What we know:
The protein is mainly alpha-helical and 107 residues long. Helix content is 73%, strand content 0%.
Amino acid sequence: xxxxxxxxxxxxxxxxxxxxxxxxxxxxxxxxxxxxxxxxxxxxxxxxxxxxxxxxxxxxxxxxxxxxxxxxxxxxxxxxxxxxxxxxxxxxxxxxxxxxxxxxxxx
Length: 107
């Protein structure tokens, strides 16, 4: 489970950096067609909202990786996977809501 944790921590670190950049207004990191209908006046708020969702993914991956460090028992593995699954689903739902609010639709 150590390799699993390292991979999650590395991916989480990348998402943390992206989340910070989005939170500071770098909406150019989001694919253009996902922001075709986002008003220019809302771009900063859109980036902040998207950045917060990225932080949620970062926290989810970090928590799952920490749980995985407790061993390889069935309980630990299932707990780690459950935290990752629930956190990613919640984050994706949050991102969809952000897209609908600022872009009018998902695409």
